[in-house]
Amino acid sequence: MRHHTSTFRSRPGSVLERDVGQPTSVTRQDDIGGADATTLITDLPYGPKAAEVAREAVAVALHGTEVDLLEDARLITSELATNAFASGKPPLVLCVDRMTPTTGGLEVEITVTDGGSSHPAPLSPPISGEEAESGRGLVIVGALADDWSLTTGTHGTRAWCRLICEAHSTTASA
Question: Name one Pfam family in it (predicted).
Answer without folding.
Answer: HATPase_c_2
